[in-house]
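hey so u asked for the seq, here:
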Amino acid sequence: MPTRIAITHPGRDASARWVAALSAHLPHAEVFASRDGDGPLADYAVGWQPPDGFFARQTRLRAFFSAAAGVDHLLDHPGLPAALPLIRLEDAGMGAQMAHYCLLEVLRLQRRSDEFETQQRTATWRPLRVEPPSAWPIGIVGLGVLGTQVATTIAAAGFPVRGYSQRPRQVEGIACFDASHGLRDFLSGCRVAILLLPLTPASADLLDAGRLSWLPQGAWLINVARGGLLVEQALLDAIDRGHLAGATLDVFRDEPLRATHPFWAHPKIRITPHVSAVTQVEESAAQVADKLRLLEQGSTVSGTVDRRRGY
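ran it, structure tokens below
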């Protein structure tokens, strides 16, 4: 009997692309779309935000592959079997996208692009002094696979970069901080802070009013990780009282962001609709296929989630 792989994804087009890509990489497997867990019992599943009844129907799974780097949508799932291995994507083309997104935002700030655009709307010809990259220390909160790529990309553009992780890390060209130094000392040296942490019970609401106050006067916040890392009202308050210059937000607690949310109309907040790093199905399917072959051989694979840590 061929290995059976169920694809569960809220987007029909994405689901069809996953079926086609995995079928090409694993021609001897039976790959099928199963949004609600219907169809034959599968050996493995790949997906994003499976419905509540998915695991109750798919009772023979040996592992579940997240169709993204984040797994908080799975760890919070009410029907997730306690012993089912969860495997997350590792980069798969997302690192370069996220690095480019963050570098673009940093360059917009350093080159004062928003101010020049404002001047254009009023036909104002007034050169503004642009400080060199060396005057813009950038902080990366989270030095995982994606965070490290973002850090090294921004450093290569000439910006001084510091990175924070719970455990000690060494990344060439990056000033590395960890829990032994303390988050306060780290944030106090960031003119721009970029959130790249996974959302876990330990990191939820990490950037609250107190920790936002640890950033220097006039700092800018970029969140490309998860909306739950940030206390939204605390951010609004920090900007409105002038402590923070503003924020670039790609992720939110509730998505899509409701039309009445105050973020939309705030003049010092830039919004994008969770597009800083979009899953590349072809590259991701190749990674899943490689890991699935290893599992079938009885080997361990990287990217296996430690549920105690939440990633």
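Residues 94-271 form a domain with the Rossmann fold fold (CATH 3.40.50.720). The mean pLDDT is 96.
lmk if thats what u needed
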